Amino acid sequence: MNKQKIAAIISALIALTGFIDTSFDLLQSVGLSLQTINQIKLSGLILAVVLPGLAPFFRTRGNT
Question: What is the number of structural domains in the chain?
Answer without folding.
Answer: 1
